[in-house]
C-alpha cells in the first residue's frame, strides 16, 4: 500500500467514526450488588432537557443472567419535572426471554443486555431537569440475577419548528 492510500484510509475511518456519532445525550447505568435488585431499591436518574421542540426516546438498559427465573419483568416508572410534579407514570412489562426460553437481548455466555423502549417519540413539555424513578414490581423482595439497570435518552427526530411559540 502506498503512503497516499494509507492516508486516505485513515481519513476515511476518522470521517466514518464522526458520522456515526450516537444521538444519545444521556446514559447512566448502575450495577446491583450481588446481582440482586431489591424491591425497596428504587433507582432514580436525573437528566436535563434543553429543547422542548425535540422528541426523545427513553430506553431502559437492563442486564440479566440466564439464571433469571422469569420470562418477563414488571417495572413501575415515575417521571417528574423540575418542580417535582409527576408528568408520567405507569406499570410496564418487558419480555426478557421468548416463550421457548431463549434470551431476547444481546450477549454472550451467561450475561445478556436488553435495550427496553420505555417512552418513544416522547415530547417533554418544558425544558428543565427531570427525574425518572424505576422500581421492580415482581412482588419479590429480592429479584435475583439482575446485574444492572440504566437509562439512556436520545433524540428520536430532528427539531420541530413551532411558529406559535412566544
Describe the structure.
The chain is mainly beta and 166 residues long. The chain has one domain: Jelly Rolls (Sandwich), CATH 2.60.120.380. It is built from 1 helix and 11 strands, in the order αβββββββββββ. The protein has one helix at 3-19, and strands at 24-31, 36-38, 43-49, 55-65, 72-80, 86-95, 106-108, 111-123, 128-136, 142-144, 146-155. The strands form 3 sheets. It has a 5-stranded antiparallel β-sheet with strand order 1-11-4-8-7, with no helix packed on it. It has a 4-stranded antiparallel β-sheet with strand order 3-9-5-6, with no helix packed on it. A two-stranded antiparallel ribbon has the order 2-10. A hairpin with a 5-residue loop joins strand 5 and strand 6. The longest helix has 17 residues, at 3-19. It is globular. It starts with a helix and ends in an 11-residue tail after the last strand.
Number of strands: 11
Give the topology string: H per helix, E per strand.
HEEEEEEEEEEE
Question: Structurally, how many domains make up the residues?
Answer: 1
Major β-sheet strand ordering: 1-11-4-8-7
- Our measurement of the CA-to-CA distance between the termini, rounded to an integer number of angstroms, reads 59 Å
CATH fold annotation = Jelly Rolls
Structural class: mainly beta
Largest sheet: 5 strands, antiparallel
Q: How would you name the oligomeric state of the polypeptide chains in this document?
A: single chain
Task: Give the overall pLDDT as a whole number.
Answer: 86
Number of helices: 1
In percent, how much strand structure appears in the residues? over 45%
Shape: globular
Amino acid at each position: 500500500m502506498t503512503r497516499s492510500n494509507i492516508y486516505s484510509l485513515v481519513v476515511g475511518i476518522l470521517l466514518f467514526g464522526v458520522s456515526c456519532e450516537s444521538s444519545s445525550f444521556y446514559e447512566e447505568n448502575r450495577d446491583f450488588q450481588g446481582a440482586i435488585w431489591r424491591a425497596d431499591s428504587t433507582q432514580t436518574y436525573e437528566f436535563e432537557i434543553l429543547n422542548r421542540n425535540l422528541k426523545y426516546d427513553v430506553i431502559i438498559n437492563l442486564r440479566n443472567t440466564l439464571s433469571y427465573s422469569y420470562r418477563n419483568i414488571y417495572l413501575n416508572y415515575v417521571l417528574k419535572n423540575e418542580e417535582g410534579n409527576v408528568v408520567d407514570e405507569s406499570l410496564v412489562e418487558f419480555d426478557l426471554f421468548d416463550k421457548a426460553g431463549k434470551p431476547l437481548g444481546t450477549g454472550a455466555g451467561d450475561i445478556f443486555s436488553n435495550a427496553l423502549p420505555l417512552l418513544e417519540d416522547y415530547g417533554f413539555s418544558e425544558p428543565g431537569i427531570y427525574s425518572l424513578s424505576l422500581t421492580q414490581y415482581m412482588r419479590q423482595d429480592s429479584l435475583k440475577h439482575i446485574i444492572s439497570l440504566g437509562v439512556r435518552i436520545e433524540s428520536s427526530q430532528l427539531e420541530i419548528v413551532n411558529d406559535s411559540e412566544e
